[in-house]
Amino acid sequence: MGLLRRSWVFWLAGTLLLVGAVRPEVRFGAWLALGVACVAAMLAGPVRGRSPRVRQWRVAAGATAVGMVADVVGESGVWLDRTQSLAVSTVFDVVVYLITVVIAVSVLSERARQATWLGVLDGLVLLATLITLSGTVSILLISDRTRPSGEGAHILSGYLGLDLLVLLGVLVMTRDQWRGLGRETWLAFCGVGLMLVTAVGLIATDRQAFVGWTLAFNVGWLAGLAMVSAVAVIPYAPVDSSLQRLHVSPGLANWILVLALAVGPPLELLDPSLVNLVTLLLVAVGGLALSEARRRMVVERATRTAAAGLAGAADTYAVVSATIAAVAEIAPAQRAILGVVGPDGLRVGATRPVDAEVADRDRDMSPPEFLKQRFGPSPHDILIPPTRPPHAVLVALGLGGARRFLGHRLAALENLVAQAELAANRLLLTAELSRRASEQYFQSVVANASDMIVTVDDSGRVRYASPSAHATLGALELTGGRLADVVGEDNALWVRRAAGDRSAAHWRIAIDGATMEVDARVADLRADPAVQGMVVTLRDVTEQTVLNRRLEHLAYHDQLTGVGNLAWFAERYQEAVESCRRAWVALTVDLDRAVAKLSHLRGRETGQELMIAMARRLLDTGYLVARLDGSRFAVLASAPAPTAAAAADLACGLHARIAVPFRLGSARTPVEVNLGAAVVDDQVGVDEALRRTSLAVAAANSRSRWRVFEPPMLTDEIERESLRSDLAAAIDNDGLELHYQPIVDLTTGQVCGFEALARWLHPTRGAVMPDIFIPLAENTGLIGGLGRWVLRRAVRDAARLRSLVDPERELHVSVNVAAQQLTDPGFAREVVATVAAADLPQAAICLEITERTVLDGTERNLEILRELKRSGLLLAIDDFGTGHSALSYLLELPVDVLKLDRSFTADIETSPPRAQLVAGIIRLADAADLTTLAEGVETERQQDILQAAGCRYVQGFRYSPAVPLPEAEKFLDRTWI
After folding, report:
1. Within a 13 Å sphere around the CA of 106, how many CA atoms are in the beta-carbon half?
2. Which of 20, 47, 695, 933 is a plausible cystine mate for 713, CB 3.0–4.6 Å?
């Protein structure tokens, strides 16, 4: 009843039928309106209900409309001539027949393309055709034949063609809504059946056998049409494709074909127009046969494709994919789930993606068990290979419904399952062969492995020992013995305690009086039936351990002295100040000067010998000692109190002990040792502690070789760092100036050259003296940049000064060179290139090197001086007399000028011996072919004494201090004699 309430067609049809039945005068119009409404329902209902069979409903609507036109033409015989009416009716009858044949063929072709065979539709079509054919024959045999022979046949052909067409279309369109012959299907079937029955009744009425029933048959026919139209307005709802459909044996089609061929000739004789019915029946049966042939081709092609895929399947996934693809082609409407057991457990495939899901807990289930669980109580059938017992099934195919509905497809599916089982068997066999090969491989590996493998039972006895274990742990028989007898009680106890966890440990095992270092690992495999014990893996790491300890020692100790290095000192320092609540003093011992001096005078080996001796002397104190970079040592000692006084006492005592002359070789050698100390605690890190001691070392002087850190030292250091930063910026930004002090030739009284001296006017500090920023540059690594800036500026200014005098006049500019500059491998090439770039002769520049730099320098420094000399540059020894004053070296040095320090000329006026010493030095320089230049000349008397002693060049305040370049240019035309 709910279906009737939802369908407006029933209400409209009932109204029109009732009006037409009781009111003869409006019957034709009412029933014609009912036919139009049915056609409208067939056209609009499927569109609104989103039915996938809209096209078939449109065909049914068209056929119904053609039938209505035929009826209208028949009824028009009242107004037309009877002969004309019959002619028109005959034409429409032929049209209806042709349309019926074409639509029937197209519907059957559609059925073939949709891969269906002999379902509900096919059974009902054959059944309705058989009933109609039998009823028609019976009526023709029993009815009187007084009427013209062609009229009954025309009426029968028209109604029968229309009814059959509606039957085909409706059942095709409702097959996806079929739910076990549900309401919609029963409605369509009943409507078509009512139309067929009333059609036969109308034929009998036309034969005047049942005249009183004509109105009832017409009402019945229209009611059946309304029922069919009502199906069209029911909304489309897809159904479970796994539900089975009623099937009819294919042999029935053959019997109907024989019947049609048998009754065809008699019907032809009775009434030639009945051949239309026979032809339609033959078309239906032929279409069904064609569909069957196509289905068999699809099954055969799917089977061949699956066989090829299964033959080349490399894994279980490939087997499942090939099989389930074939199942989808063979039985496309079935809900199918496939289970295959492979080397990696159960794999599942399905025509529905949701059915293919399998949980990890299900992978150990057999395929039939899994399929029963997945289908649950819903109707299903499971196909398994017939040669397999249920407990050993590798492949199973589950299908919704029962196997009796599969028809000839059952054999193809069973064959497919058998082929899938063969493929699964092949994969399992291949995996087993691989496993056995792997076992043999690993047995060979274990037998030849250097690692020792021992299996121990719960009682601690050895059940298995690899050959390497026998060879490494001794010649005694290990198997059957106690593990503790081999590796020791403690190690064996660790194995028992570590059971259940993959643990690792480092053992030391005594073997034949020697100690073996072993890395041990244990794995509890007592639950493994193949092992049933604890597996202990031992690796001999004796050599590796010794090497690691050696590398660790090298990483944390100084190779020369054997004491710890900075990294070692940092770790020990942190441990000491954090673990012990004592007063601690950090010290730095500086041997840079002593080692440099000894290395120069007695060789590098002597300097290294001094470092070793100092390390031993520091270790004898019992303090924590480490070697820092260069020739410095770090010391950490505990003090009575965390005070500067306690640190001073400690530093003084330590300096007294380590500054005692060393016996190096056969001689006792005094050394110059500087020491800095600082009080530290757990709040002072190692870097800060060493920084403080370094500041204290820098503050130590020649009178007091040790100092204790004071906060102002840090302030001074910050000040020096700020000044260093400003100096670096001044060098980069051309913030310095060069002043020039004239050099006078005493033979002419004229200026023969200038000494270039750097000056720095700080923007906030004012003038910074050279004795401040020059040492700062030397100690902070800026001297290289400063030297290059001075050289470039001096060369430029020298070119200008020489352009202001006679080209024949030899005028040069002297530039001071620091010791660090000589360590630069490219220094000589840079100087020569700079002078050449200014288009100056090399002799226009004189490089001044201090006596200490020359005498304390290495052979590399001397080689650089020789290279500069060969290039044509003038070389001068600056501040002669302040260093070692080794006159014997003068003959070996590649220099041109000897500059006497101002300390020699300061008192030659009042000290005759000093004047005689200066005269002697000048004569020695002349003998060595060196030109002498005296610095610090301030009076005319000093000038006269030097001139009398044979000194040719002088400079000092007697002539002028260093002045800027514009003022220095004024001295070019001046004479002082």
Report:
1. 12
2. 695
3-class SS of residue 147? coil
Contact 573, 588 (CB under 8 A): no
Q: 393 Cβ partners below 8 Å, 6+ apart?
A: 341, 366, 367, 368, 384, 385
User: Average pLDDT of the chain?
Assistant: 76
Sheet with 503-511, side-by-side order of all strands: 462-465, 452-456, 533-540, 514-525, 503-511
- Position 304 scores a pLDDT of 84
Q: How far apart are CA 651 and CA 656, in angstroms?
A: 9
What's the pLDDT at 174?
Answer: 42
Identify which of 967, 966, 963, 942 has the alpha carbon closest to the alpha carbon of residue 954: 942
At residue 48 the predicted structure's pLDDT band, cuts being 50, 70 and 90, is: confident
675 in Cβ contact with 699 (< 8 Å): no
| Residue whose tokens read 């014997």 | 888
DSSP symbols for 29-82: HHHHHHHHHHHHHHHHHHHHTT-TTHHHHHHHHHHHHHHHHHHHHHHGGGTS-H
| Residue ranges in 235-377 assigned as alpha helix (H) | 251-270, 275-311, 316-330, 367-375
Look up residue 778 and give its two tokens: 């030397």
Largest CA distance in the chain: 182
Report the amino acid identity of residue 490. D
Least confident window among 505-519, 553-567, 868-882, 934-948: 505-519
**Would you say residue 686 has pLDDT above 80?**
yes
Q: How far apart are CA 118 and CA 219, in angstroms?
A: 33
Chain segment 151-179, per-residue pLDDT in tens: 444 444 444 444 454 454 444 444 443 44
Contacts within 8 Å (CB) and 24+ apart, 597-601: 597/672, 597/856, 598/664, 598/669, 598/671, 600/856, 600/858
Burial of 159 (0-12, 13-18, 19+ CB in 10 A): buried
Phi, psi dihedrals of residue 145, rounded to the nearest 5°: -120, 35
Here the contacts of 523-532 (C-beta below 8 Å, separation 24 or greater) are 524/499, 524/500, 526/458, 526/499, 531/455, 532/457
> Contacts for 474-479 with beta carbons within 8 Å, 24 or more apart?
474/511, 474/512, 478/454
The tokens for 484 are 């503790």
- Give backbone dihedrals phi and psi of 533, rounded to 5 degrees, phi first: -175, 180
Report yes or no: 521 and 503 within 8 Å, Cβ to Cβ.
Answer: yes
Reduce the DSSP state of residue 381 to 3 states and report it.
Answer: strand
**397 contacts 413 by C-beta, under 8 angstroms:** yes
Can you give the C-alpha Rg of the chain in angstroms?
60
DSSP bridge partners of 815: 756, 847
Q: How far is the C-alpha of 898 from the C-alpha of 375, rounded, in Å?
A: 113
pLDDT of the residue at 625: 93
Give the tens place of pLDDT for each residue, 261-297.
Answer: 555 545 544 454 444 555 555 555 555 556 666 777 7
Residues 6+ apart with CB under 8 A from 410: 383, 403
Q: How many residues does the chain have?
A: 977
Q: Among 815, 848, 842, which Cα is nearest to 739's?
A: 815
Instruction: Report which DSSP code applies to 482.
Output: B
Q: Which phi and psi (to 5°) does residue 660 adopt?
A: -65, 135
Specify which residues 521 forms β-bridges with.
504, 537
- Write phi, then psi, for 543 (nearest 5 degrees): -65, -40
